[in-house]
């Protein structure tokens, strides 16, 4: 049984966290604890504070553009988006292949007018998975976002042409049916299963009039497939360098990069990562969903992606051996792109180790060695044998690189890790948490509107319709509603257990705006 958490507990992957802009945190904890009868239970914690934009590190701000992206290992390895640039009238495909002792059968059926998912559908699916992860993995699989935000996450230009392409891509991912027999991993139970689903189970969006097309202020509500949500929430994921993927020139190259990156992971033991990969050319065509079975045609389709991935430094080499249908591909990955297992990455992050340093360590040591040294570090700190003079990250990296300088936890010698630079005579005062006005004031009006809608949708899950969120974004974007005042009030009402009153008042204000009436002011608690 899980232990109850307190307001000071840190979820996996985050360093010390605080409620943003709530003043005296201890008073917030007391208020919540009192309202709940003195028990701050982990279920309330997860539903109320889980999103990493709600739990805000006091050392980071909204202006931080770093993206730690992840992909689902089932979706990534199966590659359910065809690497074809043009699909013609293709609206169905089936592939069957042997994987160890298992026979895997995968089929896809799409609407004739849309065709099978292909090309940029890879960018859209990776953006949606990444966004879902960033929200803290909502258990219902639903997420609200603006069309402009999804376009940015997918790496699209924000033009009318790309809005049309995005809508068609979402329609394909919503209407296409997949069936995977014997190839969908239920990793917590160590079982292979059969799964049938649409990538997007629910698609709802706002638009002007009866056009049915996206416009600049369109809002989306998307619900991902239940098997995909379960896979993501179980932790069956891998890191994905989404910025590198989006920098690749062609959709086909991006799809092959994503597939190759997923194939580096052992599906039954994802902490095992390989540096070389070999596969038959016909089987690789099936995985890439390239329907032409002629080896010469497959080789021509792979030439440009191979050349770019080697030129960009992801692949060290690609060797094709054999003749005809028996040809085999041998890929060797560049060490600079050594991935870090999600479990190891999470443990290093909890000690403040940056992703760049984590990748360096992963190139030098095996995952088992790194895990063992993190365990040793934790034991030494708990026993008081290790004294940290600088930061936990510096101390841990020093131990990893210099294990002989450290005793076991049972030893009597106390170790002090030398600082990287002479310590200042006076410790720096702890910085004040920024106010909502300061943080939102540093954003553009569109960024502030997008952030406000995302925050409200997360704080009050499923209480606002897509049209209401559309109106909220419009009001913030045009200066009708002050986002700093709104979010300050939203957090305060939640702490006072007055969420429903706040929702009712905000809905009244939003509907007045939709009907062209005078907006009632928000009541400040």
Q: What is the arithmetic mean of pLDDT?
A: 82
Class by alpha and beta content: alpha+beta
Relative strand content: 15-25%
Q: Strand order, main sheet: write it out.
A: 4-5-7-8
Number of strands: 18
- Overall geometry comes to globular
Span of the ends, CA to CA: 38 Å
Number of structural domains = 4
Largest sheet: 4 strands, antiparallel
Radius of gyration: 25 Å
Helical fraction equals: 40-55%
List unreliable stretches of 5+ residues.
1-66, 409-414, 420-425, 427-431
Quickly count the helices: 20
Give descriptors for this structure:
525 residues; alpha+beta; 4 domains; four-stranded antiparallel beta sheet; three-stranded antiparallel beta sheet; 20 helices; 18 strands; 17% strand; globular; disordered N terminus
What's the arrangement of secondary structure elements?
Layout: E1 17-19, H1 25-35, H2 42-49, E2 55-57, E3 70-72, H3 73-78, E4 92-99, E5 102-109, H4 121-134, E6 142-146, H5 147-154, H6 160-175, E7 177-186, E8 191-197, E9 200-205, E10 219-224, H7 226-233, E11 237-239, H8 242-247, H9 251-263, E12 265-266, E13 269-273, E14 276-280, H10 281-288, H11 295-311, E15 315-321, E16 328-333, H12 342-350, H13 355-364, H14 367-383, E17 386-387, H15 392-401, E18 415-416, H16 436-441, H17 445-459, H18 466-477, H19 483-495, H20 499-514
Parallel strand pairs: 17-18
Antiparallel strand pairs: 1-2, 3-11, 4-5, 5-7, 6-10, 7-8, 9-10, 12-13, 14-16, 15-16
Helix pairs in contact: 4-5, 9-11, 14-15, 17-18, 17-19, 18-20
């Amino acid at each position: 049984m899980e232990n109850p958490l307190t307001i000071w507990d840190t979820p996996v992957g985050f360093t010390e966290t605080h409620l943003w802009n709530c003043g005296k945190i201890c008073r917030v904890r007391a208020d919540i604890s009192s309202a709940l009868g003195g028990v701050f239970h982990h279920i309330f914690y997860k539903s109320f504070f889980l999103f990493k934009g709600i739990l805000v590190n006091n050392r980071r701000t909204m202006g931080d553009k770093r993206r730690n992206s992840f992909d689902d290992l089932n979706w990534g390895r199966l590659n359910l988006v065809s690497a074809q640039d043009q699909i013609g009238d293709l609206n169905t495909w089936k592939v069957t292949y042997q994987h160890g002792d298992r026979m895997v059968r995968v089929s896809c059926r799409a609407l004739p007018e849309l065709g099978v998912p292909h090309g940029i559908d890879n960018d859209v699916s990776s953006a949606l998975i990444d966004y879902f992860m960033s929200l803290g993995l909502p258990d219902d699989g639903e997420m609200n976002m603006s069309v402009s935000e999804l376009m940015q996450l997918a790496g699209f230009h924000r033009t009318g042409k790309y809005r049309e392409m995005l809508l068609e891509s979402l329609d394909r991912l919503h209407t296409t049916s997949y069936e995977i027999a014997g190839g969908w991993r239920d990793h917590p139970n160590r079982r292979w299963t059969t799964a049938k689903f649409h990538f997007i189970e629910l698609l709802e969006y706002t638009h002007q009039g009866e056009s049915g097309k996206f416009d600049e202020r369109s809002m989306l509500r998307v619900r991902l497939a239940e098997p995909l949500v379960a896979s993501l929430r179980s932790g069956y994921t891998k890191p994905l360098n989404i910025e590198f993927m989006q920098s690749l020139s062609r959709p086909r190259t991006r799809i092959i990069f994503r597939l190759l990156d997923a194939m580096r992971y052992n599906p039954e033991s994802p902490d095992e990562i390989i540096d070389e990969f070999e596969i038959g050319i016909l089987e690789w065509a099936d995985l890439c969903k390239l329907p032409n079975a002629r080896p010469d045609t497959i080789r021509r389709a792979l030439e440009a992606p191979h050349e770019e991935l080697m030129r960009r430094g992801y692949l060290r080499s690609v060797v094709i051996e054999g003749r005809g249908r028996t040809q085999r591909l041998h890929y060797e990955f560049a060490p600079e792109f050594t991935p870090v297992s999600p479990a190891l990455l999470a443990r290093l992050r909890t000690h403040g180790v940056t992703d760049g340093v984590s990748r360096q360590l992963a190139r030098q040591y095996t995952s088992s060695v790194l895990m063992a040294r993190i365990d040793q570090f934790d034991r030494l700190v708990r026993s008081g044998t290790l004294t940290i003079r600088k930061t936990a990250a510096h101390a841990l990296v020093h131990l990893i690189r210099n294990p002989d300088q450290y005793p076991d936890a049972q030893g009597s010698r106390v170790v002090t890790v030398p600082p990287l630079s002479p310590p200042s005579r006076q410790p720096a005062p702890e910085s004040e948490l920024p106010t909502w006005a300061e943080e939102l004031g540093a954003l553009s009006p569109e960024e502030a509107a997008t952030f406000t809608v995302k925050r409200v949708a997360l704080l009050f899950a499923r209480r606002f319709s897509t049209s209401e969120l559309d109106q909220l974004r419009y009001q913030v974007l045009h200066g009708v509603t002050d986002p700093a005042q709104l979010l300050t009030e939203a957090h305060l009402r939640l702490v006072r257990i007055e969420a429903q009153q706040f929702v009712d008042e905000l809905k009244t204000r939003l509907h007045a705006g939709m009907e062209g009436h005078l907006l009632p002011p928000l009541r400040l608690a």
